[in-house]
Amino acid sequence: MGYVTNSAILPVLIGKGGLIISDSLNHNSIVNGARGSGATVRVFQHNTPSHLEEVLRQQIAEGQPRTHRPWKKIIVIVEGIYSMEGELCKLPEIVAICKKYKAYAYLDEAHSIGAVGKTGRGVCELLGVDTADVDIMMGTFTKSFGSCGGYIAGSKELIQYLKYTCPAHLYATSISPPAAQQTISSIKVILGEDGTSRGAQKLARIRENSNFFRSELQKMGFEVLGDNDSPVMPIMLYNPAKIPAFSRECLKQNVAVVTVAFPATPLLLARARICISASHTREDLLKALAVISEVGDLVGIKYFPAESEKQHQEPGAIKLE
């Protein structure tokens, strides 16, 4: 799985005397992998390239703790789409900074590969970044590919090195033949190598579905995180007490919603995480929107005026409660 891929690969890529600079909202698998590596770990403000550069400059100037020797290696770790925020990584700026300071770029594409980009090749394709500029690309087969396991993509020399040194490769069981075939078949569909246009249609549909659903939620007055084109869209609940109420009331009307709370998120930043699929029909989305809107009113999680209410408010008017 993707969790094991991150947590097992990072200790092999870097160790004592190395520096990991990680986005503050990176997935727990990255956090655990970084901790287990023995490298020094520093964090930069979420998706803020300017702060990344500030941290890089400071750490390069100071060097290793106590000895102040130059770092043996520096790896910057980011996600293509952040799993709990639905935001697209500012990859072009981050890659440019990595080049400038001769740091390695590590990209986790678990939620973006097979879901965004004209041909499903992830955020590099979507944002126009040359994959050769990303040193290590990680992903999972459990989401867009409907299988199991994870992968690492990089230079031939890197992959050869990992084959001989990574415990997850040396000692773990390989994925089963059916799972491998499922992954291969999914890739062929996404790339159009199955002789049909199903892959292109699915990619267009997931983008259309995602942008439609996000737009409608925002019009209703929900606080929705993330960027357009991202199929991951968290609806902010904030209060932990609203988590079971929102989930149960939706389920009563046959809409299953995944809620996320501490420790996956900060204590007072609970949310419902909606993941849109190409398989969702417009009827599915409209049904879900109607239920979520009704439950949102019941639970009290519409933190902004609905679009219809905004239109009835006079320009410049101040509403007094």
From TrEMBL:
Compartments (UniProt record): Endoplasmic reticulum membrane
The enzyme's E.C. designation: 2.3.1.50
Membrane topology label: Single-pass membrane protein
Presence of keyword Magnesium: no
Main location: endoplasmic reticulum
GO terms, molecular function: pyridoxal phosphate binding; serine C-palmitoyltransferase activity
Superkingdom in the source lineage: Eukaryota
Cofactors that this protein relies on: pyridoxal 5'-phosphate
Top EC category: transferase
Biological process according to GO: ceramide biosynthetic process; sphingosine biosynthetic process
Pfam families, A to Z: Aminotran_1_2
UniProt keyword terms in alphabetical order: Acyltransferase, Lipid metabolism, Pyridoxal phosphate, Sphingolipid metabolism, Transferase
Pathway named in the protein's UniProt entry: Lipid metabolism; sphingolipid metabolism; Sphingolipid metabolism
Domain Aminotransferase class I/classII large, residue spans: 2-292
CDD domains: KBL_like (cd06454)
PANTHER family membership: CLASS II AMINOTRANSFERASE/8-AMINO-7-OXONONANOATE SYNTHASE, LD36009P
Similarity remark: Belongs to the class-II pyridoxal-phosphate-dependent aminotransferase family.
Protein's recorded name: serine C-palmitoyltransferase
Species: Salix viminalis
